[in-house]
């Protein structure tokens, strides 16, 4: 019987509440599908700053490295807004991505059938369905490049470097092509190759790797155009692959277009099997501790973990089906609609366990 | 009687057709409001490559520098896609911005009353109205920074530099604050200050300049969040100020949200009075020469020119009013709706002249 070691990084704000519900669901799935899970906890973000002075203690990195996967709640909040840039909760997030080599961020933007009216986009355009997978490079580019202050003509200035090497682009391209092969075999590579040198290298490399995937229909799009096309006709996309910064912007835009931000999960993968899984929403300090947070994105992050890191695709499918079923009649306040039952964070966790 | 020298850069694709209609409207306005306009033409983009081998001939720069303002149609097309990066039509566009010091790009995203159903966003959200002014820094940042190829661990790599100096941020911030003062006194500065050093300098500088504008309500937003908020609730924005690359992405997203891309004008301003004015849409090679292009964005660019560079605000207002009036019953194919008259590019120009 498979036995998995999972590290929980509950984080800040609503993080602990939502992770607790996801753990309950994972335990239930482990009974049903015959595997066991051992948990350990570690600190990341604001809670780590409070306890240790830094957002990413060494102990957290060590524990995560030893685990089969990591489940993260959310980090950050106004309490730590006055920390210097390199000691903010966000620095912990960037730090753990770098330390674990999590170069591939998978961000599905999907519409759940019972929530199909939630998209801000008109029904004629969105047609109640959306299923985009955005593959964002996560440990390179301008978020990890050299940066600093300097002077220009005697005046203060500041700079950051967007840089990509061929192997960095190759490995993220392969992740995207592999995903496209399992989906609708369409891949859009997004860059700004009409201006940026790093984008030209990106495009050349993706083009070369595409030869290994003759079945995948590849097209290129400039980032400004992609930001428009996501609004104009999001249904045209299957898989999108792009750099760290463009992926940050476009994946957030796409998730808002789905209308279901409180529902969206994400996976951050490394060259090894182990990954980090987290909801895409933030730590929502305004509702932390009230017991009304929506745990479904975290529960769906567990499903992604089962699929991509733990080789339990059946358990993943079962959790996703349970969530869709529960959603028909039950809603946390953020997704509440007339005619459904309004439930708490904990009740939502219980309902998904029952439906499993 | 004021006499203005205007350079026309008709450019490629539909560029010549739409500029011709805009010239007709400007001539009509000059009769009505008692000024004269002299025109000169110069080459930019693909047509310049064909005629001279380069996208921005020196003669074009010289003519533009001597003019009171420049009206640009559109540049680019598949014909020049195989030109090397530094000799593409787009390089001409970046070149003229740099050569004329056009550091402030004003990109209004507005909904025209007769086209209020055109937005892809649901009516409950957009409420039929939108009036955002995006102020994009246009001659700095990563589009103008140093770039090159290098090696990382023996592997090819490529890099670009995002850099801003304090004076560069100060001057674009002042343009944005001045505009906010003339509008609803709300300014959103968009950056990625939780990660980028250049964004931290940007934010510090905007904060300092804000002291000169105590009446303007300033807030900050991360670029990923802004990409979401434009979809979730675009009505929250009045003026947005941001860097070259973020402005490129967000202004295109915002214009798609307006649903009226064929209608949107833009101004690129320098420290002097003279500016460059152009529609935000592209050269549409697929419909070039068919006489069915929509000239209204170019006509509205003329209105912006009259307002920002030529001190003829009444003529600007009159053109904008004429366009709104004509739109009630007349449409080019791109904005056609049942129950209106379908008109050609030239007819649309004539109708605006009549309405003036
Ligand atoms: C907090 C920030 C550094 C982070 C990022 O931009 O990578 C966040 O926006 C995200 O997308 O996970
Ligand atoms: C063609 C390109 C260089 C240009 C830019 O990104 O600046 C265009 O997208 C624009 O926004 O005017």
Automatic annotation (TrEMBL), chains A, B:
Reactions mediated catalytically: (2R,3S)-3-isopropylmalate + NAD(+) = 4-methyl-2-oxopentanoate + CO2 + NADH
Domain Isopropylmalate dehydrogenase-like: 5-352
Binding residue positions for NAD(+): 77-90, 282-294
Gene3D superfamilies from the UniProt entry: Isopropylmalate Dehydrogenase (3.40.718.10)
Coiled-coil spans in chain: none
Domain of life: Bacteria
Cofactor: Mn(2+); Mg(2+)
Subcellular location per the Swiss-Prot or TrEMBL entry: Cytoplasm
Cofactor note: Binds 1 Mg(2+) or Mn(2+) ion per subunit.
Matches recorded under SUPFAM superfamilies: Isocitrate/Isopropylmalate dehydrogenase-like
This protein's pathway: Amino-acid biosynthesis; L-leucine biosynthesis; L-leucine from 3-methyl-2-oxobutanoate: step 3/4
Binding residue positions for Mg(2+): 224, 248, 252
UniProt xrefs under InterPro entries: IsoCit/isopropylmalate_DH_CS, IsoPropMal-DH-like_dom, Isopropylmalate_DH
Site (Important for catalysis): 143, 192
Keywords assigned: Amino-acid biosynthesis, Branched-chain amino acid biosynthesis, Cytoplasm, Leucine biosynthesis, Magnesium, Manganese, Metal-binding, NAD, Oxidoreductase
Enzyme Commission number(s) of this protein: 1.1.1.85
Binding residues for substrate: 97, 107, 136, 224
Subunit structure: Homodimer.
Function statement: Catalyzes the oxidation of 3-carboxy-2-hydroxy-4-methylpentanoate (3-isopropylmalate) to 3-carboxy-4-methyl-2-oxopentanoate. The product decarboxylates to 4-methyl-2 oxopentanoate.
Family per similarity comment: Belongs to the isocitrate and isopropylmalate dehydrogenases family. LeuB type 1 subfamily.
Name of protein: 3-isopropylmalate dehydrogenase
Protein's organism: Ruminococcus intestinalis
């Amino acid at each position: 019987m498979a036995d998995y070691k999972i590290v929980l990084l509950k984080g800040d704000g609503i993080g602990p509440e939502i992770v607790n519900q996801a753990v309950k669901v994972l335990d239930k799935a482990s009974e049903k599908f015959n595997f066991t899970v051992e948990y350990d906890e570690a600190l990341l973000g604001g809670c780590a700053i409070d306890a240790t002075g830094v957002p990413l203690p060494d102990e957290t990195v060590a524990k995560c490295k030893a685990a089969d996967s990591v489940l993260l709640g959310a980090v950050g909040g106004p309490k730590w807004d006055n920390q210097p840039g390199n000691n903010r909760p966000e620095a912990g997030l960037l730090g753990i991505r770098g330390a674990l080599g999590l170069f591939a961020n998978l961000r599905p933007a999907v519409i759940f059938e019972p929530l199909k009216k939630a998209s801000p986009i008109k029904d004629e355009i969105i047609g109640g369905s959306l299923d985009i997978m955005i593959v964002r490079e996560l440990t390179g580019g301008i978020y990890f490049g050299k940066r600093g202050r300097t002077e220009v003509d005697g005046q203060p200035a500041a700079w950051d470097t967007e840089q990509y090497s061929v192997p960095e682009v190759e490995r993220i391209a392969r992740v995207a092509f592999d995903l496209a092969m399992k989906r609708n075999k369409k891949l859009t590579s997004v860059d700004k190759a009409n201006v940026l040198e790093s984008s030209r290298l990106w495009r050349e490399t993706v083009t070369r790797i595409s030869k290994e995937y003759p079945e995948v229909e590849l097209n290129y799009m400039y980032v400004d155009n992609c930001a428009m096309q996501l609004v104009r006709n999001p249904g045209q996309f299957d898989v999108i692959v792009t750099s760290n910064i463009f992926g940050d912007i476009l994946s957030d835009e796409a998730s808002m277009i789905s209308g279901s931000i409180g529902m969206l999960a994400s996976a951050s993968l490394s060259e090894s099997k182990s990954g980090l899984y987290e909801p895409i929403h933030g730590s929502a300090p305004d509702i932390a501790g009230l017991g009304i947070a929506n745990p479904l994105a975290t529960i769906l992050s567990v499903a992604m973990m089962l699929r991509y890191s733990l080789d339990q695709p059946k358990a993943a499918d079962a959790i996703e089906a349970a969530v869709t079923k529960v959603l028909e009649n039950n809603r946390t306040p953020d997704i509440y609609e007339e005619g459904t039952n309004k439930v708490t964070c904990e009740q939502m966790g219980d309902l998904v366990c029952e439906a499993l």
